[in-house]
Amino acid sequence: MGTSVQHALEQLKATGVRITPQRHAILSYLVESMCHPTADDIYRALEPKFPSMSVATVYNNLKMFIEAGMVRELTYGDNSSRFDANVSDHYHVICECCGKIEDFSYPTLSDVEHQAEKNTGFQVKGHRMELYGVCTCCQQMQH
Predict the structure, then answer these.
(1) pLDDT tens digits along 31-52
(2) Is 95 marked within a binding site?
(3) Known binder of ligand: residue 135?
(4) Which residues are noted in the entry as Zn(2+)-binding (predicted)?
């Protein structure tokens, strides 16, 4: 796992952000959850502990984490953004049946970036790679 919750919280404090119990809970949930939850998923998971928390609160905090560079927003086909607390270089495999996203690491494709720069003259800032398939759970259900 790329970031520990403690490390993430210290980074936030350094940027002058107040660590509320809600923020702590949202961040912990994101770091511990490997399935790239949506804001609704996070809200539903934390609502029992924070009855006064709204989906808007979750969204606003996620936006703040994204601006702090600690969380990545993944926008894929199903219109609901998913959030990923792992901002290290990694790629995603997406299930076409249930929409689940899993991380996998691979030596970064920097040579692809260089090639793109050579061919286009662009200054490449980064890339994202997605692979599509059917996850093991959905495969079992199909048999």
Answers:
(1) 888 778 999 999 999 999 999 9
(2) yes
(3) yes
(4) 95, 98, 135, 138
